[in-house]
Structure formats: C-alpha cells, structure tokens
Amino acid sequence: MHKVIFDTDPGIDDAMALLFLHKHPEIDLVGVTTVFGNAPIEITTRNALYLGEAWDIPAPVAKGAGQTFDPARGGAYWPTAIHGHNGIGDVPVPDALSREKDPRPAFQFIIDTVRAHPGEITLIAVGRMTNLALALKADPEIAGLVKQVVIMGGAFNVNGNVSPAAEANIHGDPEAADIVFTAAWPVVVVGLDVTLQTVMTSGFLAEMVASGAPEIRLLSDISQLYIDFYKTRVADGMVVHDSCACVYLVRPDLFDTRSGAIRVVCGGIADGQTIQKPDGRGFPPGAWDGFPSQKVTVGVRPEGVLEVIRAALVDARAA
C-alpha cells in the first residue's frame, strides 16, 4: 500500500484526483492538506471537508497556507471561470458540515505524519507547493524521511498555461516550488508536457456515471463547468491534470521521464518557469549545480492513464 498525503486546492480536477486516491485499492490516503489556489483557503478547505463527507473519505483534513511562502509576493487571483465561484463547479454545498478540520496547520500535519511513518509517506501535491515548503522550513530533516514527492505542475518542453513560460501551480508560488524541487528528497514532476495529452471525453465520463456509482454522479456534476471551459481548448471533454499525478504513483510505467536538477525562475517576465538541467548534459557552472537530480515526465500513454482512473472509480466499486 502507498501511504499518501494529498496536498490540494479543490478545485474540479482535484476532486477527481481525491476520489481516485480514496478508491484505488493500492493507496492508503492518510491525510488531506489544503492550500489556496483554485479558490481562497477557507473555500478549498471547506471543499475538502465537503467531499470527504460526501464520499465517506476517512482521511483527516488539515487547513494549509492562505498566502505565498514569501508573503510579500501576494497577487493571488481566483480562476472562477474554470472552477466556479465555490471552487467545485458551483454545485450546491451545504451551509453546515459535520466534519471538522484537523487542529494542526497543514505543514505541521505533514511533519507529524512523516515522522510517524518514516520512509513510508508519499506527498502528492497538485496545487501551489506552499505547504511543502513551509514543512521543510520548519523541519528540514523530513526530506530524508519522505518516500517520494509527486507534483502536478510545471512545463518543460511546452508553453505554460498562465503565461508562455509558466504553469499555474508553479506561477502561484515560485519560491515555494524552487524550495521543493531543490530539497534532498525524490521528486517526480508531472507537468503540462503530459497532462495536456490526457483528455477525458464527456462520453467517457458519462459511461462511468452509467455504472451507477453515486460518487461519480457528484463528480460529473462538479466537472461540467470544467468541460465547458475546455470546449475552446480540446475537441471534447477535459484535461485531467491532477489525476495524472495520482496515476503516476501506481503506474509509473505509463510515463516517460527525464532526470536532472530543476530550478524555478522567481521574478521577471518568465516568473514561475520550470527549467531542468538534464543529467549528462555539460554546461558551464550555474545555478543548477549541487542540487539533486529529480524526474520530470516527458511522455505519456493517455489511454492507459484513463483506464487506470476508470478501473479505480468503477471497478473498485464492483469489487
């Protein structure tokens, strides 16, 4: 079993990823930590609690960062055209929830859980990496105790999606991302190079709904605004960014990777750009030297990824 802490900013594609992590038989979801991004922190935390309640997910939810690692950066905006005003497609959410968040801030929850299970915890982060950077700042030794870090973010051989240079999760807190990528723990970055190739059509989603699983009906309702947004970008359906990172955990064979140190541009017109110095390439001394080699995904088998998602969401129920 893969023990996972899911660091997330729900978020429509975050919701699918959360349900996948909950239902996959090889994953033990031990915690959910929230971060600002697709909506303000109060809303993303409320969404995580709501989805946990609606889908009977026992994992505790810890509220995380509501601003960037460097508070002076500021500049948050909320992508309401993509995720809706409530972050999850504007589906109705009850005013009162029975679930309450964990009393610890997210960074402390991460530290405590990693130290309680040394060498066992995988961190999957699909939003800004602020919580992970704060955990490293508070307790740098956890880098040696984490099994693996899987990130949804970045763009290496393709353009970004919030600027020609930058992908949204990295652009939202570049300083945090640079801290995470240069820490002494193993990181895999699942970025736009592969996620933009992984499109779930509306028909594929409808077939999953037809299985009769009530969880997927709610997921479909949440996803409709996302599908509408992507009508001008893909022929039909939606890009399943965050679920790609989760699928990597259980089926890394569906992805091609490249190794090398990664740095993030912090400032200027390329703010948030992710740049890897590939292993084996010679360059004069520079800012990538002395940092650990990390993996970025550069190829994907999209049909295989979608089948893993379908199997977890539909077949796991049948089993």
What characteristics describe this protein?
alpha/beta, two-stranded antiparallel sheet
Structural class: alpha/beta
Beta-strand share of residues? 15-25%
The biggest beta sheet is recorded as: 9 strands, mixed
Q: Extract low-pLDDT stretches.
A: none
How far the N terminus sits from the C terminus, by CA atoms, comes to 17 Å
- One letter per element, helices H and strands E, the order comes to EHEHEHHEHEHHEHEHHEHEEEH
Based on CA atoms alone, the radius of gyration comes out at 18 Å
* Biggest sheet: strand arrangement: 3-2-1-4-5-6-11-9-10
What spatial form do the alpha-carbon principal axes imply? globular
Helix share, percent: 25-40%
Our count of helices gives: 12
Number of strands: 11
The whole-number mean of residue pLDDT values reads: 95
Can you offer a commentary on this structure?
With 319 residues, the chain is an alpha/beta fold. Helix content is 37%, strand content 18%. The protein contains twelve helices and eleven strands. A nine-stranded mixed beta sheet has the order 3-2-1-4-5-6-11-9-10, sandwiched between helices. Strand 4, helix 5 (130-138) and strand 5 form a beta-alpha-beta unit. Helix 1 runs parallel beside helix 11 and helix 5 (130-138) packs across helix 7 (174-182). The longest helix is centred in the C-terminal third of the chain and has 17 residues, at 214-230. It starts with a strand and ends with a helix. The model has no long low-confidence stretch (mean pLDDT 95).
